[in-house]
Amino acid sequence: MFVDSHxxxxxxxxxxxLPELLASMSRNxxxxxxxxxxxxxxxxxxxxxxxxxxxxxxxxxVHPDYPDVTEPDVATLVxxxxxxxxxxxxxxxxxxxxxxxxxxxxxxxxxxxxxxxRACALPLIVxxxxxxxxxxxxxxxxxxxxxxxxxxxxxxxxxxxxxxxxLGFFISFSGIVTFKNxxxxxxxxxxxxxxxxxxxxxxxxLAPVPHRGRTNEPGFVPHVAExxxxxxxxxxxxxxxxxxSNFFTLFGRAQAAT
Length: 258
Prior knowledge:
- This protein is α/β, with parallel strands linked by helices.
- The protein has one domain: Metal-dependent hydrolases (TIM Barrel), CATH 3.20.20.
- It has eleven helices and eight strands.
- Strands 1-2-3-4-5-6-7-8 form an eight-stranded parallel β-sheet.
- It is globular and about 40 Å long.
């Protein structure tokens, strides 16, 4: 069985097809998925989706790509995280790729999320793009290792992966690792130990080969596992077992709710 550790099935292009997506998950032995929040405005839809389906979990957070949304504080995040289907804080982090200029607000938002995760003893879902040095510096400065978490949709170097692993974080690979031109990322995926590795779709984005170019969905996550198995020289079932175990180890509240 497989777990999609990060998706956005609350987004309109997927939410309107939810029964179909859940059926596809079942056919492809994807037993659970984590629907990651990206802002507080749309959080009710994330929570309602998780509440309505026993195999869907939720997170609470505000993505760094959203400048003009409600800014969370620690108390708000901690209060929202009391929802029984919430298993993590995030998606949070830094992204210097899409946004330019003074991004102090991004860095402060990231700090708020780390403090909230520590306060409510939930793991972090960390997004980093073109900002790995600052991401790691803030994680160290704020004691993110005390909360733990995952570097989601990982596309950074082995050096960044090692630093995150040293902080006790898991590394999650998306469909990008299946792309032919992702040679450096394949090397990183090969080097990350199976007991610290997760798989995800980040759907509706980044559909893996052989579905590249299509709208992604949780039922496609076994293709990510197939590539990880190839890179590690192990069976698909070993990767399925390891990544499923890792998911429930990291997201302990999900284990308790299953």
